[in-house]
Write a structure and sequence with these properties.
Elements lengths: L1 E5 L9 E5 L9 H5 L11 E5 L6 H15 L14 E6 L7 H16 L7 E8 L5 E8 L4 E4 L7 E3 L5 E2 L7 E4 L10 E4 L9 H4 L1 H19 L3 E5 L13 H31 L1 H12 L10 H20 L1 E4 L2 E4 L5 H34 L1
Parallel strand pairs: 1-12
Antiparallel strand pairs: 2-4, 3-5, 4-6, 5-6, 7-11, 8-9, 8-10, 13-14
Helix pairs in contact: 3-5, 6-7, 6-8, 6-9, 8-9
Length: 371
């Protein structure tokens, strides 16, 4: 299994969906969150794992969350809805996974997301989206308010005599009242933190930044737990097709994804050609790309900079879903499906001309090197 990750944009050919939870019942129904129209069918979630040991299990913890919400509802601002954490739907690469591997995968993802806030609680499930080739998914719910379990323990063994007075172990008839490490019942406490974690405030951090952060966490978890390899390269994110989309909207998305694939494959092909002829230059370019630098140093450096700029040009076109060519403005979405398909053909023609111009530049660069 391998994933392609764009070092500059953080895009990767995997899927992650995240959304705030305002109704606790929705954590069991992915189709409600993602608006998947499954013709009346529900996605069956299978419980996988959690870190709710000592919290009364999943059911007990959800009751605590509801009770805390009811008791503190007065804190909400007018017309504000109460939030019960966040859910993440994560797509697994194709393959077979053992249950223990999936549990470790969830733990790793949670660990990367929460960082030092280890008292944030989570639960995870698995499910499949039915299609020609069923897609395996993991759903993780993270409650965004820390839940502390404070347990003070005895520091040494304690022995008492028949009168109940503290004594030594050697005293005749001594009885062990407690052992070192046991929890002191009257000093145990469980409670929610009054303020919520700021990790999930994407309005402060920025939606694109936090989306890229979550995707990176998921890719790192896959890399560390499974045998998934991450290949450094450039990648155009694809448009998603939902079951609720009509056939005209589907045609627009299919045409857009096809032109993305064609342009991406063409540019990556020439990158591989340059890599085979000058591996040092390609290595330097990858290192510079990870640092956000476009370097012309080393063999093949100039060619890589040119291809990198071309990729960025079309990445911007696909981000806006529109382009200008020959004094005309063309849309890839938000138009009639036949117009969108024609515009995709025009975009391919425009790319072909750009690519021919670049190949001529490559010949000029090579001739300069030979001289």
């Amino acid at each position: 299994m391998s994933l392609v990750m764009d070092a500059q944009s953080g895009e990767c050919n995997t899927y992650i969906h995240f959304e705030a939870v305002y109704n606790l019942e929705d954590i069991y129904h992915p189709e409600k969150i993602e608006n998947l129209q499954l013709k009346g069918k529900e996605l069956n979630l299978k419980y996988l794992t959690s870190n709710l040991a000592g919290c009364g299990g999943l059911g007990g913890f959800l009751e605590k969350v509801k009770q805390y919400g009811r008791e503190n509802e007065w804190r909400l601002k007018e017309d504000a809805k109460q939030r019960f954490g966040w859910i993440y739907d994560l797509m697994l690469p194709r393959g077979e996974y053992q249950v223990q591997t999936l549990r470790r995968l969830c733990l790793k993802f949670w660990h990367y997301v929460v960082g030092k806030e280890k008292n944030l609680r989570y639960a995870a499930w698995t499910y499949e989206i039915p299609c020609e080739k069923p897609v395996k998914m993991i759903r993780i719910w993270i409650y965004d308010r820390e839940y502390f379990i404070h347990k003070e323990k005895y520091q040494k063994d304690m022995w008492v005599d028949d009168a109940g007075k503290v004594c030594s172990k050697q005293t005749p008839g001594a009885i062990c009242k407690c052992r070192k490490g046991q929890v002191i019942p009257e000093r145990a406490a469980v409670y929610f933190k009054r303020t919520k974690s700021r990790l999930f405030e994407y309005k402060i951090i920025g939606f694109e930044e936090i989306r890229r952060f979550y995707k990176t966490c998921w890719v790192q978890a896959l890399r560390n737990v499974t045998n998934t390899t991450v290949v450094q390269g450039r990648y155009f994110p694809r448009l998603s097709i939902r079951n609720s989309y009509n056939r005209w909207l589907r045609r627009i998305i299919i045409a857009g994804n096809q032109v993305r694939q064609v342009i991406q494959n063409e540019i990556l092909y020439w990158m591989r050609v340059i890599k085979s002829k000058s591996p040092t230059g390609f290595r330097d370019w990858v290192l510079d790309s990870n640092l956000g630098i476009q370097s012309e140093g080393g063999p093949g450096g100039k060619e890589m900079v040119i291809l990198n700029c071309l990729f960025d040009k079309y990445a911007e076109i696909f981000r806006k879903n529109r382009f200008t060519w020959k004094d005309g403005d063309y849309r890839l979405t938000e138009t009639r499906c036949d117009d969108a398909e024609r515009n995709c053909l025009k975009l391919k023609e425009m790319f072909r001309k750009d690519m021919d111009t670049i190949l001529l530049q490559f010949e000029m660069i090579n001739s300069e090197k030979e001289d």
